[in-house]
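ok new one. same drill as before - structure tokens go in, u give me an amino acid for every spot. 665 of them this time. try not to just spam alanines like last time pls lmao
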């Protein structure tokens, strides 16, 4: 194989996506038998040669006359003005390899995608040219590329001729090097490449072209033919291997011992959503950071079989084996497939989620914020949302912690997965545990016969919000910590664990650090949760948002499109009110206004509300009395608007008798 050979003269883009026959013989056992011998297969062996002088062209024709006649070798004389284009033109003619000397090689290498072989100027070639130049009995001016190796001091005693050596780095320097000796042309002879001899010829100067020896020409062209053969063999092997791998159901990825991807089949492309060109010869972790378990096998030398792994939006069963060649580890091969049963389970879960409405409806653009501090909080929350770490959201009751949590979910990579929220303070500890972890059939008295999925399972792939996490007991804290660390749960009454991929967002209305200090909250859970933190300011600290929020709620709660005008005095009271209930309380005030005032906010209601707060009234109000009062006010308002009792009864879903009873209670 040519990529196992020493190729000092080849430059170009040779991309091999298949296997080296020697190095990777153990990758797939059918592979070697399928490509055992393909050297007799007909292929396009066309070679393009850029000859720097007619003399070189004649030497090539003399050695490979049949190939030239049959267009297997195409020779173009060097065009000094269009060197950059010559190799491209040969490539368009269908040649598979270009051979060039010196400047032609330099420019061809940077312009074509096919391999370029350098027909080098050797010391022997230079010595032969100088021997011919001595016949002129003139001063020899040797003009050669700077990169050509020629040590004059080593050969001067054998040459018996004093020479002037002129080296150049760029093509544009050649003409100047030759013209430098025009005024001495009767006493000098130029020895050099095709361009140098061409310039000397134009100026009537004696010159000798440094031709390539027959041995060098023959070896270079023979090598180019072998290179074409190897390229074809590699292409054939890649196609054979591609057909084998694309025919299997599993996704297959192989990496070498440096972590570079050397194999990537069609099924892997379908699952991982990246084209072959994006991954081949790239570092595995740079392209697929979530496939780090493959690198772990290479690092730890521990193979894995049928291991469950969670990627972005699907679950795989993976096998990763080590590739041994002659007792040395040369890489690893991973095959994996999407798990059908888990896909079906996921479909069932999605159906249940839709039925339960377990999704995040709020986004950051839904949140009204004019206050600079609140704006900064939202910007920080966006950055945190894009991250996948656990986070604690601090804020007083009614500040919108769940709204922020839902917005974080919707800006994350989990946005298409479930969002599940639970208020830990609203449920008893025993019930909270079964809600979070689920239970098996018959786990306890009253348990469902079919068992129940817990919220952790329902949130799989998505986000779980644990609101008022500060209220849970230390016993439940320990179980939650285990879930966070092990990424798995065990249902109540079960004897096996279920792996999970869930992002946890916790919310609290008091500092957990204080709870840690007083011993009511575990420090290990606190540090596990508080990787990132967000503090939502209370409404009294974001005064600029009060009026915009109030106006927003008026429009949201109103059934019409009226723009309500609030007088300045009430605006002042709203702005300077302490808002212990935060945004939730503000919404309630807006709702009261809409219910009891048709146009303007009544200042009396605000005063009543403030006086009630000042007097620290904390009376338990009968909900039935509230409902009765509201119903009476609504009915009275509708009667004043001219609606009949029949229309009102229909609107409220009552019979005329039912409405009469309410009016006469």
């Amino acid at each position: 194989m040519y990529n196992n050979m020493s190729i000092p003269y080849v430059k170009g883009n040779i991309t091999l996506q298949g296997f080296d026959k020697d190095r990777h013989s153990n990758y797939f056992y059918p592979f070697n038998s399928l490509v055992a011998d393909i050297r007799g297969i007909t292929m396009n062996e066309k070679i393009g040669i850029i000859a720097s002088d007619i003399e070189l062209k004649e030497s090539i024709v003399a050695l490979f006359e049949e190939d030239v006649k049959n267009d297997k070798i195409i020779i173009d004389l060097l065009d000094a003005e269009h060197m950059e284009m010559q190799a491209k033109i040969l490539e368009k003619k269908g040649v598979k390899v270009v051979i060039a000397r010196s400047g032609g090689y330099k420019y061809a290498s940077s312009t074509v995608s096919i391999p370029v072989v350098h027909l080098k100027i050797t010391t022997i070639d230079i010595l032969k040219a100088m021997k011919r130049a001595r016949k002129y009995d003139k001063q020899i001016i040797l003009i050669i590329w700077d990169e050509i190796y020629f040590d004059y001091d080593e050969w001067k005693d054998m040459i018996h001729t004093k020479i002037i050596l002129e080296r150049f780095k760029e093509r544009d320097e050649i003409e100047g090097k030759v013209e430098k000796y025009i005024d001495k042309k009767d006493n000098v002879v130029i020895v050099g490449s095709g361009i140098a001899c061409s310039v000397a010829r134009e100026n009537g100067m004696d010159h000798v072209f440094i031709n390539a020896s027959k041995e060098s020409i023959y070896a270079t062209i023979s090598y180019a033919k072998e290179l074409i053969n190897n390229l074809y063999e590699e292409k054939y092997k890649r196609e054979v291997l591609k057909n084998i791998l694309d025919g299997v159901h599993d996704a297959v990825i192989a990496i070498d011992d440096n972590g570079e991807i050397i194999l990537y089949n069609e099924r892997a492309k379908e699952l991982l959503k990246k084209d072959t060109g994006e991954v081949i010869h790239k570092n595995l972790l740079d392209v697929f950071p979530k496939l780090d378990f493959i690198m772990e096998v290479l690092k730890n030398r521990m193979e894995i079989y049928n291991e469950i792994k969670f990627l972005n939006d699907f679950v795989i069963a993976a096998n990763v084996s080590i590739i041994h060649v002659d007792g040395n580890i040369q890489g690893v091969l991973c095959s994996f497939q999407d798990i059908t049963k888990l896909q079906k389970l996921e479909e069932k879960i999605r159906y249940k989620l839709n039925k339960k409405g377990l999704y995040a409806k709020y986004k950051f653009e839904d949140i009204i914020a004019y206050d600079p501090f609140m704006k900064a909080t939202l910007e920080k929350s966006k950055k945190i949302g894009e991250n996948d770490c656990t986070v604690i959201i601090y804020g007083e009751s009614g500040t919108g912690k769940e709204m922020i949590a839902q917005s974080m979910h919707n800006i994350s990579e989990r946005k298409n997965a479930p969002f599940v929220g639970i208020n830990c303070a609203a449920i008893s500890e025993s019930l909270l545990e079964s809600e979070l972890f689920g239970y098996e059939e018959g786990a306890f008295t009253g348990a469902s016969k079919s068992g129940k999925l817990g919220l952790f399972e329902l949130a799989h792939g998505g986000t779980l919000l644990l609101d008022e996490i500060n209220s849970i007991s230390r016993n439940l804290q320990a179980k939650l910590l285990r879930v966070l660390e092990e990424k798995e749960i065990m249902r109540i009454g079960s004897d096996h664990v279920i792996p999970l991929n869930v992002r946890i967002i916790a919310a609290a209305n008091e500092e957990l650090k204080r709870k840690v200090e007083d011993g009511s909250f575990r420090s290990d859970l606190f540090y596990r949760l508080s990787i990132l933190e967000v503090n939502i300011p209370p409404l009294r600290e974001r005064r600029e948002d009060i009026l915009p929020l109030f106006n927003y709620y008026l429009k949201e709660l109103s059934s019409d499109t009226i723009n309500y005008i609030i007088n300045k005095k009430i605006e002042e009271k709203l702005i300077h009110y302490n808002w212990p209930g935060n945004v939730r309380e503000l919404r309630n005030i807006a709702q009261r206004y809409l219910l009891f005032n048709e146009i303007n906010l009544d200042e009396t209601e605000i005063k009543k509300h403030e006086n009630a707060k000042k007097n620290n009234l904390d009376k338990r109000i009968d909900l039935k009395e509230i409902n009765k009062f509201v119903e009476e006010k609504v009915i009275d308002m509708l009667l004043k608007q001219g609606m009949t009792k029949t229309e009102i009864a229909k609107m409220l879903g009552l019979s005329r008798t039912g409405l009469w009873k309410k009016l006469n209670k």
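The chain has five domains: 2-119+215-227, 123-211, 247-338, 344-537, 550-663. and btw Confidence is low (pLDDT under 50) at residues 1-42, 598-602, 615-626.
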